[in-house]
Amino acid sequence: MKRRIRNLFFLSLLCLAAIDPFAAHAGRLDTWKWRSTVPAGSNYLFSIAHDGIATFVTVGNNDSGGAILTSPEANTWTAWSWWSLYLVFGVALGKATFVAVGSNGVILTSPDGITWTGRTSGTTEHIRAVAYGNATFVAVGENGVILTSPDGIAWTTRVAGTTYKLSGVAYGNALFVAVGDGGTILSSADGVAWTLRASGITQPLLGITNGNNTFVAVGGSLILSSADGLAWTTRVSGSPQYFCAIAYGNGVFAAGGSAGTLLTSPDAVTWTTRASGTGRVLQGATFANATFVMVGESRTILTSTTGTTWAVKTSGTAANLSAITTGGTPLVGVGNSGTIMASADSVSWTERVSGTPANLYGVAVLNKTFVTVGGTGVILYGDGYAWAPALSPTSNDLFAVTVGNGNFVTVGNAGAILLSPNGIVWAAYASPTANALRAIVFNGTAAYVAVGAAGTIISSSNTGGTIWTVRASGTAATLSGVTFGNGIYVAVGDGGVILTSPDGVTWTARVSGTAVNLSGVTYGDSTYVAVGNAGTILTSTDAVTWTARTSGTTNHLSGVAFLNNAFLAVGASGMVLQSASVDVTSGNSTISVYDEANTITGAPSGYTVAKVISFTATGVGASAGFSITFPSLPANPTFYKVVGSTWIPLNQCTGVTNIGIIGTTLSYTMAVTSNCNSASTPGTIVDPLVLGSFSSSGGGGGGAAGGSSGSGSGSCFVATAAYGSYLDPHVALLRDFRDNCLLPHRLGQAAVSLYYRFSPPLAEYIRGHETLRTLTRWTLTPVVYGIRHPAYALGAVLLLLLLGLSLVWGVRQRRHRIGESQG
What we know:
Layout: H1 2-17, E1 23-26, E2 32-34, E3 44-50, E4 56-61, E5 66-71, E6 78-83, E7 88-94, E8 97-102, E9 107-110, E10 117-119, E11 127-133, E12 136-141, E13 146-149, E14 156-158, E15 166-172, E16 175-180, E17 185-188, E18 195-197, E19 207-211, E20 214-219, E21 222-226, E22 233-235, E23 243-249, E24 252-257, E25 262-265, E26 272-274, E27 282-288, E28 291-296, E29 301-304, E30 311-312, E31 321-324, E32 331-335, E33 340-343, E34 350-352, E35 360-366, E36 369-374, E37 379-382, E38 387-389, E39 398-404, E40 407-412, E41 417-420, E42 427-428, E43 437-442, E44 447-452, E45 457-461, E46 469-471, E47 479-485, E48 488-493, E49 498-501, E50 508-510, E51 518-524, E52 527-532, E53 537-540, E54 547-549, E55 557-563, E56 566-571, E57 575-579, E58 583-587, E59 590-597, E60 607-618, E61 623-629, E62 638-643, E63 646-649, E64 656-662, E65 665-671, E66 684-686, E67 689-694, H2 717-723, H3 729-742, H4 746-767, H5 770-788, H6 790-822
Antiparallel strand pairs: 1-58, 2-57, 3-4, 4-5, 5-6, 7-8, 8-9, 9-10, 11-12, 12-13, 13-14, 15-16, 16-17, 17-18, 19-20, 20-21, 21-22, 23-24, 24-25, 25-26, 27-28, 28-29, 29-30, 31-32, 32-33, 33-34, 35-36, 36-37, 37-38, 39-40, 40-41, 41-42, 43-44, 44-45, 45-46, 47-48, 48-49, 49-50, 51-52, 52-53, ...
């Protein structure tokens, strides 16, 4: 009885204590990352560099401006920064700093390739290339502009002696050499004083490198070499194509250019053509981590360890993607010009052969058979990787396909409705409309709903999709998406139209808060998500009230699906966006960068990585509290911080305190001075944090990050902050109450989980203010007393209740007597 009294009495107090007005939240649905097979959002990649440790950085442009992307191994790329409307042409590394240059005099610097800062260049000319050497950065560009800087921050204009556009610069043999239009070659020992050198050609030179004490410049169909950067010799390339990219490594020069042309040479004299596997222009090149990497047009990225054999690492597409599967393996996205993309993990994507030039608009899977539909009645079936054409009974464009009652059902132009039990043999059924049908959904039991042009809505119940009825929508807008979840149908369309229905028959208009066209909608994790033009993403938990989310793109989004604890959206330029599956909350700081992955190199022996969370917290004081909620935890979870290539168990990091795990939420506080914080900028904390577990025969070393996965052995954050010590008797009493009275019950577990999710940042704030510590101790005093003496606490509550009732009774009696006297 005592325990039950205490549970009920203090449960609400714990819930109230968990409310944190200072928390900054990196919500799952405000955190979307490019998961394309290609570098996110870039249409053209111009240059690439490496930090000498673990990060490639490539720069270029996209539909709306510049693109900067990073990769640990040149396979999987992530967009970390867009820089306004300016293109980014070149990037180099020096003094542990990346420097990127671009149009209109743009210069950016970054310590990690992730967080970028704009610098004043002193010019509005396009800056085409940058190099580092002799403790100096040198940038070159249009109209002979040359700039130098000792740190990438402060820049000085130098006299070039030419007005030709300069497109490349390199350092070697204690000399800077710049090249450009008109066969221009300039050299300088210090980057300050420049001398014009004779090239013997008038064709533009676009790139230059130094290797094995030899400079090599490329441009047009020519290749030039020089032992000293002063005297130059033209070499025979053997190719009519023009060359833009040149790099040296592993005893080999590698040159890339138009039509995917690739040449290699051991001495810069004799050149051999290599198969590149692409027909796209190769624009930039580097050699790092024992690997050549070339980048170029339409997001092309090639790699090679020898220069002889090359692999197209991204196998990407710039085609617009229209739809993505909601289940099955692999994931499949389809789009324009017969594009089919497949992925086993939603991160790495490969293009598959469709055998059709038709645009593909819809895709679905049933019993391991995939079906995609598209223009002119095209229907393909397969296993997600290999595809074959099915015999279609229509030549109308087919826009969507779904699965229900053991059948595929597809809809399209002129009200077309087709059914198939296997995706191979199809039959057409009568439609009640001649309007184009753009989307279709099955409710999981017996009913289909299809939507389309001019506000068309039709439904079919208990007929297997063979008999359909027109329903009133109340709108003339084209409806392009429909879903079903939690007993509600949701349809979306042009002009931000959103309609809902409990039965597919009666529809109600909802306020979306946007006027842009919406193209797709889905349901998952108790949330509806709609996508559309200009990168629009809207979410709702009830289909009535909708919230705009940050997508990080202005590209058109065509379709959305939910699987593996995350939403996937597809759209223009081969884009795939994935929402976060992890929720991050931080007190008195801002989560400015966030990403998650499932792999990372260098893990301890026997340790299996489950999730890698990378985020940057800015605006931190002495420390910040973090709460990270995972979709699930492995048995005996162990957390590591990774600094460079060093793995440190979270509970062995200096300056990391208040570690606790409740449910699937990890909470901890980290000081900016911690040895596990790799940030070089004051007031900043940088992860990654790795979640995983050791096999029974493997090692160990982190434990469960200093706590257990649900035993409640984590800290009582607020109480510890108020009383000053984890060992204080008051804290111990509260901790015992939590472990023995709350955690054994479901409601108590929910309250404690909420507390551990939001209390660390509040505790951190209280810890730094003595007045708040005192007030918190006063507030907790009756709680502590009630835990120690539950009978007295209950008596006090009953006494207060009786006093309250007596007061109410007295007031009512007085009003009654006054009423009688006035009557």
